[in-house]
Write a structure and sequence with these properties.
two-stranded antiparallel sheet; 15% strand; single chain; 38% helix
Length: 375
């Protein structure tokens, strides 16, 4: 009798064990429709090591933070923590610092009352809004036109605050439908939870579309081999890829640097993703940097500003700015400074500041500065 009872019971246990194995196996690998893009995202370093399992599980808010920060890091942006106590419910969380970084970079928001809810799930319309917010903060596509009349099978369920973001993601093939209705409209399922693999695909497609990954290489330059300045972090003769540098300034600016590599007068003393230092003729330098203040292009010369030095400075300015009025004002300022020692200082709108003067407090040096505050 006992054997008769145990036999079906053992069968049930075996079935449960098999089911559990199948579920766990499925969770450890992406779905068939997602596996190619997930693997490509992994290959490009977009997936945090803690996110390489549970692909079909709903993504949590802190997990989205890890995905978003990987995109930010690929752009070469710096993040400065603005608050150590932004949310009361992340204290002691394993990824507390990452959440604070994302909040400081303004790519996430809280729920109010000092809460972030790091382990809460995210709906599909929420993740679309977060992706759109990330795109706007990074200024990846300022000229994006979004068609307002896009129709979805379940469009009535998309919240008004999420509609523009869903439209953007859908129209740019970042978010796709989960099927079609009887008349061929895509089903968005805006209130459904987003799985980890779905979120990975959204972020990967954004990074791919905006050439955060797979960007064409701008080229490499060599740090001056004769440089003996011990303050320079890079070794003389090192090669540096200008791809990330070009995103911080412009491709045109990177191209100008490439053209200087074989120059006999100009030495590339140092370069990073966000700065470059050039030495011209041994008595002059041009320094460019992009940081929390914006973009700064500064010229320093221990001799008067000759025509070739002015030409190089204006070439770099035009490459990174392209505003003819600003260029004209710089030309007029340098002319007065060189010929008559006339100091100039001017704010152009709320965006640009220029100045030039002769400083004899320590060493006799001519200084010209351009500052793009908006950047």
């Amino acid at each position: 009798m006992l054997r008769k009872i145990l036999k079906p019971f053992v069968g049930i246990l075996m079935l449960l064990a098999m089911t559990t194995t199948v579920i766990l196996g499925n969770e450890s690998t992406p779905s068939n429709w997602a596996i190619t893009e997930v693997n490509e995202a992994i290959g490009h370093g977009l997936i945090h090591e803690s996110l390489m399992e549970g692909y079909r599980q709903p993504i949590k808010r802190y997990e989205y933070v890890l995905l978003a920060l990987s995109i930010v890091e690929k752009t070469g942006r710096d993040i400065i923590l603005e608050s150590e106590y932004a949310f009361s419910d992340i204290l002691g969380h394993p990824y507390e610092r990452e959440i604070l970084k994302a909040y400081s970079f303004k790519i996430i928001d809280g729920y109010g009352n000092g809460l972030f809810k790091p382990d809460a799930n995210i709906t599909r319309q929420e993740v679309a809004s977060l992706v759109y917010k990330l795109m706007k903060v990074l200024a990846l596509d300022d000229d994006t036109l979004i068609q307002a009349d896009t129709q979805y099978s379940d469009g009535i369920h998309i919240s008004s605050w999420a509609k523009k973001a869903v439209d953007y993601c859908y129209q740019n093939d970042i978010m796709k439908g989960v099927g079609k209705d009887q008349i061929g409209l895509d089903i968005i399922r805006p209130l459904g939870t987003t799985t980890l693999e779905e979120a990975i695909l959204l972020m990967y497609r954004l990074a791919n579309q905006e050439q955060i990954i797979n960007a064409p290489s701008i080229g490499q330059i060599t740090i001056d081999e004769n440089n003996t300045d011990s303050t320079v972090l890079k070794e003389a003769g090192d090669l540096f890829d200008l791809t990330l540098f070009s995103r911080q300034f412009s491709e045109e600016t990177a191209t100008v640097l490439l053209g200087l590599e074989d120059s006999e007068e100009v030495r590339i003393v140092d370069v990073s993703d966000r700065s470059a230092l050039l030495s011209i003729g041994g008595n002059s330098t041009i320094y460019m940097v992009r940081d929390s203040r914006g973009i700064i292009l500064e010229l320093n010369s221990q001799t008067n500003i000759d025509a070739s030095l002015e030409t190089l400075y204006k070439e770099l300015l035009k490459a990174m700015n392209g505003n003819d009025f600003v260029l004209g004002r710089i030309e007029d300022g340098i002319k007065g400074l060189r010929n008559n020692g006339i100091r100039f200082e001017e704010s152009i709108g709320e965006t640009y500041q220029i100045m030039g003067y002769f400083d004899d407090t320590v060493d006799d040096v001519y200084i010209v500065k351009f500052h793009d505050v908006a950047r």
